[in-house]
Amino acid sequence: xxxxxxxxxxxxxxxxxxxxxxxxxxxxxxxxxxxxxxxxxxxxxxxxxxxxxxxxxxxxxxxxxxxxxxxxxx
Length: 74
Prior knowledge:
Number of domains: 1
Order of helices and strands: HHH
Shape: rod-shaped
Distance between the termini: 54 Å
Radius of gyration: 23 Å
């Protein structure tokens, strides 16, 4: 006997909502790690001397603009 459980519109909707909730939870739990990495990268960038900054195509003003941004901003 064939089951119609998988063809139900309600079942399809709940799977979609479940995936959306899972995606939101992934972003919520991942955010602190991204923020910590971003803060660390900005701190390291601000510690580079002008010669090294020039090597990577940045100047002190560029670094200042990036390093003063809050950690939650990309």
